[in-house]
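Below is one such protein, fold included:
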Amino acid sequence: VANAFEGGVGGLGKTKPETGILLSMPPTIQNDGEVRAELILAGSVNDQDQQQAVLVSYKSPWPLLPSTTGVESRDLLNPESAFVQVGSTSIKQSSLPLSKEFFMETIFSSLGKFGAYGSPTDIVISPSKENPDLYQARFVSLTPAMRESPRQVYIVAKKIKSLDPASKTCSVVMLVTGSTATRFKKQQKEFFQVADSFQVVEAPSIRRNTKTKAAAAATTDHNNPLH
């Protein structure tokens, strides 16, 4: 686990970026480089009965940044990184490729990882023809010195339907990995491997309800005259 300022990509952001992440516990990294985290999806936070959690994981060649608010691994000496972001889209659009507007409102927002010094510009999103969850993006972000920096990333976007059948939205859990455009071309295979390793699965309900069941059991025992 690395120590670094938890700002925008590269650690140079003025404020903590908004990534839509709510962790149920701090992320961890295994000896083989697999990053793991459990997230609580927005919209279910205040409803214990419908609270929806997912387990995310990906293989990272870079150290994990310690955080209680995000999931990010980063090369501390170079601009390579990978981070998780969560957004939402209309349930009507859940079977369609995500739009450029969706990514501009999430990953490429002025409040996001790449927007610490202004919203990214010249954004080009290219969906993969082989993998419906995979996208490649080119864009220009600003450095602290207000210089333009062409960048390139892979985006893997997994859509998660709400537990609430009446919900009109579904969550989108994303992994973003890349670097400057020049370095991306030289290490594209490595970035693809990171993106390809991204997994999102629903957390077992027994884990989500452990505290609730324990509290209920304690109450039952306390009120039972046989104990």
In short: Strands lie at 28-29, 34-40, 53-59, 72-74, 81-90, 121-127, 134-142, 148-161, 169-180, 199-202.
